[in-house]
Amino acid sequence: MESVKLGLIGLGTVGTGVVKVLQQNADVIKQRLGLPLTIKQIAVRHLEKDREVKVDRHLLTRDPYDLINDPDIDILIELIGGYEPARTLILSAIEQGKHIVTANKALLARYGHEIFSAASAKGVDLGFEASVGGGVPIIRALREGFAANHIQSIYGIVNGTANYILSKMTDEGRDFHEVLKEAQEKGYAEPDPTFDIEGIDSAHKIAILCALAFGAHLDLDRVYAEGITHITPLDIAYAREFGFRIKLLAIGKRLDDAIEIRVHPTMIPETNLISTVDGVLNAFYVVGDAVDKNIFIGRGAGAFPTASAVIGDLVEISRNIISNHCGGRVPPQSFLMGSIREVAIKDISDIVTSYYLRFSVVDKPGVLSKISGVLGKNNISISSVIQKGRHTQAAVPVVIMTHEARERDIRLALEEIDQLDVVLEKTVLLRVEEGE
Amino acid sequence: MESVKLGLIGLGTVGTGVVKVLQQNADVIKQRLGLPLTIKQIAVRHLEKDREVKVDRHLLTRDPYDLINDPDIDILIELIGGYEPARTLILSAIEQGKHIVTANKALLARYGHEIFSAASAKGVDLGFEASVGGGVPIIRALREGFAANHIQSIYGIVNGTANYILSKMTDEGRDFHEVLKEAQEKGYAEPDPTFDIEGIDSAHKIAILCALAFGAHLDLDRVYAEGITHITPLDIAYAREFGFRIKLLAIGKRLDDAIEIRVHPTMIPETNLISTVDGVLNAFYVVGDAVDKNIFIGRGAGAFPTASAVIGDLVEISRNIISNHCGGRVPPQSFLMGSIREVAIKDISDIVTSYYLRFSVVDKPGVLSKISGVLGKNNISISSVIQKGRHTQAAVPVVIMTHEARERDIRLALEEIDQLDVVLEKTVLLRVEEGE
User: Fold this and answer.
1) Residue B392 — very low, low, confident or very high, per pLDDT cuts 50/70/90?
2) B152 near A CB under 8 A
3) Nearest to A167, CA basis, from A274, A23, A91
């Protein structure tokens, strides 16, 4: 064997990064692998487009099946994203016995079980380190490093765009829409930022991580996702008064009979190390029963960090190919497919956590008593209250931090409270993760 | 194959942790591996000793060669520590074709090249995740996750005892010896704490990490190690005034023609995320040319976190055994043995960094001018000075932060300065890592 042959589908930002790093770091890759990684063919949409990287025109094709049907190609790299044609291409390539490396988080979050099962049945390897956390080797840690553990929980800041916006709002006291616009101008946010700011991208990523961490087959549509569009500088400032920061957190927890998996803006204590992870960085906080807590921080996106993850997978799979063709040595989800259980996801209304509630009320005596009355009636107990001095505005804020309560009870209470005469606007609700 | 058979040498703290986690988490390990991991025999010094874990008396032997010569045992776990007999036992076991898992950092720091070469020649696997950073999967990240990268630098807080002591001194303004004594009483420091507080343990760990990161064969005796015994609350307070924290840092940097590898108390900016890693936690900061910076934080010691790392390696190697016997698929240092270069380690006197200097001087006009004169003559330029108001004591502190300078020049300057009449005590020197 003289080299490991790669077929690449997609030559966008990440694809270009992969080609560049394969070229620039060919020396160190060969020192580690013993053989070079060679791109045999690249499927692109437009043959004639100008590229940011030097690629031999003869490598390009418009038909991805040229790669899939080439018996010479060992590993297929899928970097086009989205559900179709990515899903069909990957399944066809697995059928042809190709090993797969992909960065496609949307695809794996929704069709992971189908793709993992197909790869496992065929005994081919499937690398997807790049699908979550860019260059951070979090998937490798879950699949291999923490294999001795029952993973108890994993949560993280998994979307750099949302984290950048929240960090800017926090540091500069600025408004969401203003910061979003600036982020779009700087290229940190997409022209259509919905996936990032509404928590959808984060939901995809935490679904993949939970599948790995808990050996679970789960339904993406049951993952609760709430974005950051309603976060205001006022709430960020109050959070700080209580010693908290607001982060868009993706949370997965193993319970006895189900898992919790949810994405929402979350107040975390300033003493928690990941509360200081700002800007475009990603952070992952994993707790296992043997290893205790582990934190991983790094660039969650970008051409080069993502290429680092893609090529890390290529090296891993190539080592399998070279060493006795031991493909399939690590099951896609780390658990054998026969051990994967369909798990129930707790409905968001059933979760128990503590809450930050900001009420906009008229500045009259007796208001707090009315609100706390409704909370008490719904089994919600108060841990602290901030009610600032008299204002001249019509609406004044009253902020209440609760002890642990059931979300269903909170929602019932807020429904009633928001109809009180003394309450002028819809109450703001933020969930709190205590600890550290 | 019904199970993977293990031989364990050493049933101390970590060995007991491994047995416990293998028992408690047998379910999840089997779900991931498909087979159980079974301890076939354990070599101990005292057969009759009371153990913290339930072990069948028939598994115990006093002769480690019972394990090494048993053709039934697939993987040998070495947890006795120290150079001998560990080195001879591991080499004999490799000769017998056994795969090895070890947590022995002292051994690998000094005899790594010999052991790596033997394992590589025999085609057996050698797992040593537990030798550095307890449960933090930093070795897996360097061997596999970052395989696409030229690693440019790695530095970290790699000794929990020293970090605990420095954290306590920082938070409580207390003296080194007082905090050390308390740490010993609480069991956080050994009765003989030399290895931890003098930076020797940290030197072992950074030597292993640099061998992996840079594909290097290096001479442990050339690693500069300076401990924390001379750190005072006064210097911690001054560091804070400049916006820095003092940490015992183990540093490895790849230069064009050599590497830098050194351990010493270091001032790092408070804005650097790892400056807030306190207590017994470890932290690793890795920079690769593709992946950019990555940070790993977790428990660097303790029976269960270390057992998590040991068993993670057992699962990795077992997956190799089960999948077509592809042992040796990952070279011990990630680089093929043929690519490992002997590297020169820069002498500490040749490094270039910035410095914190605290002079104890008489409180007279003209002192600063004398000191800065000597510094200037030695090519050392000053970035800032703190000279507090007049004191009644004989000695007053003058603190100077320098721009980047060569250590040799600094030492020459301090030799001259410490002989000035106006200087009353040996000058305190701390190195600074800028950035982030």
Assistant:
1) low
2) no
3) A274
